[in-house]
User: What shape does this take?
Amino acid sequence: MGLTLSQKIIKDHLVSGDMTAGSEISIRIDQTLTQDSTGTMAYLQFEAMGIDRVKTKKSVAYIDHNTIQAGFENADDHKYIQTVTNKHGIYFSRPGNGICHQVQLERFGVPGMTLLGSDSHTPTGGGIGMLAIGAGGLDVAVAMGGGAYYLTMPKMVRVNLTGKLSPWVAAKDIILEVLRRMSVKGGVGKIIEYAGDGVKTLTVPERATITNMGAELGATTSIFPSDENTRAFLAAQGREQDFVALSADPDAVYDEELTIDLSAIAPMAAQPHSPDNVADVNEIGPIKVDQVAIGSCTNSSFMDMMKVAKILEGKTVHPDVSLVIAPGSKQVLTHLAENGALATMVAAGARILESACGPCIGMGQSPKTDAVSLRTFNRNFEGRSGTVSAQVYLVSPEVAAVSAITGVLTDPRTFGEAPVVDMPEHFIANDNMVIAPAEDGSKVEVVRGPNIKPFPLNDALPETVAGKVLIKVGDNITTDHIMPSNAKLLPFRSNIPYLAEFCLTPCDPDFPKRAQENGGGIIVGGSNYGQGSSREHAALAPLQLGIKAVLVKSFARIHMANLINSGILPLTFVNEADYDAIGMGDELVIQDAIGQVKAGGDVIVKNITQGTEYRTALTLSDRQREMMLAGGQINYIKKMNNR
Ligand code: MIC
Ligand code: SF4
Assistant: This one.
């Protein structure tokens, strides 16, 4: 029986386990990436492991998320990351060099290799045929130390692309169509492989837009074959030697398939407040627009920016619209500066931001109260823009640029001839903003500013786990709800005690206080709990508040792994109706927690207040079971090292 493309890469990197969907496997990691807002924690954890030098083929630390520097905190974190990476053999991409996923694709991605990144959009690398997976910082730290990455062997989904996109329809519309069909939880436990004749019509940056936003499906990752377009992209980056041709075997077997006729899709938008709330731009109609933001790791490539520049040429941004543009990398920005496109954008009235995440993570450019904001980004969760009442729509660069001129959400097909931009034969490759690590790190001093606080460590699992239900939330709670990240909070990513005071506050402002008053307790939630970001702060802040278990209908992949790494019990209701019965403030008890976890079956949770009990599933591998008993991954590693 033939193999799918990702099964081939997994097979080449397999360290343990058998490749049956649903069972635990571990794979060797070739490359890692971190960014600054998850990176400080990842490097603190790496240091705690006591390993001198990274053991990967290439590890890169990016500074891209937290670049406003409204106080000393950001700059402290940057310096810490710069020095700790210099010491331990990690390349450092300086602030200004660009968004991690964009730069990794341009400069370091290699087809057929594995990439683990402490950011949920790491699957962008699938656009170049990498098996690129997002994970919590601790898992990335372990991979940097040479440890394997453990995951559940995913099911395989093939998306057959047929036909060719019509003018004005973009790669963004393809992934919006996939989201419309599969939903934000439709990809959990799956890898999405793109195949079919339509693949040849897409360049690597277009493919990367699609694999990037596969994160919004909850998928483990997404991947395209590596073909002549991949070779052309690598050659244009001056890296043709990194090319290898890769594709699935013709007789590969998939668990699910869907077909998208590219010629049949229209410009679309994901409406507030979920990336899967997708409709055709035409169906939504010409709503008035207050802000347009173009950029992010989804849509900030050179070609995206050139299309925007061509649309803006000779025009003026509508008087009621604020247009901001953040080119994805120094490479893109340099190219736009050299060919005059930057001047075109500025002349039209665009406000140019540095090459970084910026407004995508709420670092500035929060729209006005009740604003309609069109963004080429990948997430429109409520409040993520920094303005709770804002209505954020996710669109292609084409829809964004045209609407910035008209002042209303506009189907660009009414705007005349579509801009055509070919991939250049040569990108401007200059890696002078990437600092190579010291050959001998022993003399490098790591600089730690006062913002860097120790991270919380759990205790070994106690005999009895007991606590009150401190909060009961619904479906699709995101990590932006659990650990909000806006311009005020992002500077504190290395200060968990401070961040914990804001844990789950978008759902209930009193949650942190209640948790503290009760000495911790239990969180109850609906399905797909913890979707979105890889931030392990969404597990560390609850840990800081004494949360012992999270009891939900189902979990998102990375968040569940982060809870396990922190030693917090991730339980799911066996009977979903029990979710309805459970009440805020109910006293829950898990007796003989150690015995129940060791036994490996369902865990019985008693509701003392109501005199009932619930059967809950604790889906752990043997290794995760040991981690849970030890009180999380770091305690487990220490225990193994001391044996
Ligand atoms: C995001 O897009 O939500 C982030 C910010 O990039 C996160 C990482 C973080 O929270 O630092 C992600 O996607 O993992
Ligand atoms: Fe940065 Fe936004 Fe991409 Fe996250 S989704 S890495 S915040 S650009």
Summary: The chain has three domains: 5-264, 268-411, 465-641. The two ends are 42 Å apart (CA to CA). The longest helix spans residues 72-88.
